[in-house]
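Margin note: ligand = adenosine-5'-diphosphate.
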Amino acid sequence: MTAPRVTPPRPPPPHERRVFLLALAAGLPGVAATLVLLNVGDYPARTVWTVGGFAVGAWIVGTAILRERIIRPLQTLSNMLAALREGDFSLRARMSHSDDALGLALMEINMLGETLRSQRLGALEATSLLRAVMSEIDVAIFAFDDSRQLRLSNRAGERLLAQRFERIAGRSAESLGLAELLQSDSPRVHDRTFPERSGRWEVRRTAFRQEGRPHTLLVITDVTKSLREEELQAWQRLVRVLSHEINNSLAPIKSLAGSLQEVAVRAGGAADSDDDLRRGLDIIAARADSLSRFMSSYARLARLPAPNKRAFDLGALVRRIAALDARLPVTVDPGPSMEVRADADQLEQVLINLVRNAIDACLSERGAVHVTWQGDEGWAEVLVTDEGPGIGGTTNLFIPFFTTKPDGSGIGLVLSRQIAEGHGGTLIIENRSDARGAVARLRVPR
Ligand code: ADP
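Resulting structure:
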């Protein structure tokens, strides 16, 4: 059985042809009537041919002109619309009359072009403002698509991951180490170490759609400084209250212990109980002394002045400090010669604390302490490396009072970090990755 043949529908005559045929049809009766009248009338053959030829010629030419008159403006309109569609808003249609139908259509198209042009300008301005805000803002922004691949990042984001966007675009959240943040509650504060900085970060997540696909916006703000300042203020208030109360009690304890000692000496008894009494009073006086020294060192934490910055040679400072503690030789591995603008007295205090801690850690292990420095045009970093037992955990290191040493005060690291952050820098203590021991990194802007 053969399939029935389907005759394709005839394409409608193009608009141009239809206009031409209609114009011809409109003129046809007049021309036909003229020709008939010429033949019916008693005219010489020459006249008939001349007038007939003229009528037919005028008919054909008039039809062609009419066709042009209708088709041309339509072509102009379609060219204008095509230009608008392609985003070229510079074309303008010239109108001879703005009050006829064609003039009105052209005027509307010109106005449409003007509206689209100003809308595009507005969108471009808004986009460039958004770009400028995104790149200048000190908050890291990342956008991930529904397959958790990075689609966008701003300059703070590049700094946080220490990579240019071109190198990380399209990488998965897992490979960038951001997967955990994409899943956590929002907003939430995380303790984290990124390639360039460690600290506390507030992470916020927002969902949005682009080209119909769901995306996730990750906004990461460094809240280390503000949280630390709040924490520090709380500690400072506590220390102020405690030192006031303790000092008030220590003064009479010390003076009473001194007076009782004199009484015991004057009584001059030789009995064992008198010895015990004197030894007890000695201990009370010594402990009261050390407690008041301890309290005054805490008071320093509450009264740390703002850094008084001036330029100095970092290498010279490091060498001087390395020679201070005689318990163990400290090796200086010289870095590049560099000047730093900072408070030399405060940085000296930090380095003394770091070197002392490193030596404390090495004494029992018979390890070595190395100090070196490095940097670029923006930053200087001093590294104090030891071969001690390393640190058990970083959670408590920077909490005032935390110490694992019998005569420690637990103030060295808090004070040191306060100084580093007062300079706009950081202090990190971590276990070494290459060997046993810890490394302290003090980083300050130059
Ligand atoms: P302190 O030295 O008076 O104890 P710090 O604030 O300087 O106070 O140090 C706090 C604690 O941090 C120390 O008691 C020690 O347990 C730990 N610590 C600091 N530096 C090191 C290090 N290099 N290696 C091991 N532990 C360290």
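The CA atoms of residues 89 and 113 lie 5 Å apart.
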